[in-house]
Amino acid sequence: MSNRPVSVIGFDADDTLWQNEQYYKLTESHFRSLLSAYAEGDRVSERLLEAEKRNLAHYGFGIKGFTLSMIETALEITEGRAPSSVISEILAIGRDLLGHPVECLPHARDALEALAGKYFLVMITKGDLFDQERKLAQSGLGDYFDAVEIVSDKTATTYRRIFGKHGEGPERSMMIGNSLKSDIVPAIAAGAWGVFVPHDLTWVLEHVDKPTEAPRFCEIPDLGHVPDLVANLKG
User: Fold this and answer.
1) Within the chain, which residues score under 70 in pLDDT?
2) Which among 181, 197, 189, 183 is positioned nearest to 160, based on CA atoms?
3) Distance, CA of 105 to CA of 15 (rounded, Å)
4) In this structure, which of 82, 108, 172, 193 has its CB flanked by the most CB atoms within 10 Å?
């Protein structure tokens, strides 16, 4: 293992190992219908996104913050006159998000199975602690991981800490995920490899330009390409 360029491999969870954003999109569609008497759907979505941006620093990432942002948006759009029935329905669809089924993405299990025992695997995800623990348990993927890190945000400092804690530092580590902003750019900035696996529904706030000039940037179409990529990696 000491002769390999990489000894630790980090995996993002939401929309890398399992579907996630599609459930938020369905919830947002329901939310838009709840406020259809007060504003056009596109306007509702715009105001919701503005609220999410404002609230990230207060509530962090995850369903609870999303639900609070929906309530705030409803109150803003209705100028404080949102019926209690609408607020109750928002709370209900937020709770439904906390119970959505876990659907693993293609090749996720096979990729982890091929790497487990050969590399130190760590799931690195942000969001609500209880919800991420629930999804990991229901996914059936937990046994493949040597460690799980649920963090408030993903920065270069975050990756340096995690890869230093579980391995020999970011220089001999790799991060795999669907978010350029959270999974790839900061991991590369920390000194690790960043492997981008695009997902059609990645949240708009996670979009940044690809770091195509970075020598440690890779892009693959799906997780099925991970084992070969890692095996053929050159330092």
Assistant:
1) 1-2, 235
2) 189
3) 8
4) 193
Predicted structure pTM score: 0.91
* Residue (of 177, 94, 98, 108) closest to 135 by Cα position: 98
133 three-class SS: helix
Phi/psi for 230 (5° steps) reads: -65, -40
- What is the pLDDT at residue 175? 98
* pLDDT for 2: 55
Measured between alpha carbons, how far is 221 from 146 in angstroms, rounded to an integer?
25
Structure tokens at 206: 């996670």
In tens, the pLDDT along 206-233 reads 888 999 999 999 999 999 999 999 999 9
H helical segments located in the chain:
21-34, 41-59, 63-77, 84-97, 108-115, 129-139, 156-166, 185-190, 226-231
Long-range contacts (CB closer than 8 Å, 24 or more residues apart) made by 88-93: 89/34, 90/31, 90/34, 91/67, 93/27, 93/30, 93/31
Query: SS3 for 216?
Result: coil
3-class secondary-structure state, position 228: helix
Alpha-carbon span 176 to 204, nearest angstrom:
19
